[in-house]
Specification:
alpha+beta
Length: about 120
Amino acid sequence: MLTITFKPEVAEQITMFANEKHINAETIVDEALRTHLLKLRREKMDVELAEFHKQKEALLAQYRGEYIAMYQGKVIDHDQSLWAMHRRVFETLGRVVVLMKKVSEEPERVITMRSPRFERASK
């Protein structure tokens, strides 16, 4: 459990939105923080991925066909098994942002998922 003190104007806005939505203030804060933390994690992952691409030739020379774990721009582990490596990294670092990726010359697949669109049924 963590106790946080908000500036009065922020606390007032949280209370206002919570009242409008008929939910408690903790839910508003929890959702906002989760959203922001997810954004920060994505930004950190983007930095690690950019570093991976910068180092790709050197990584191919040393780790071709293996999975690597990259943390703060450095390879901290590698293995043929993603799951074995994942377990070791998690035991060592916990829940931090670590890029785990196979070192390969194959082009990366980009998967685009479109959101469903809902339309009203005509009467």
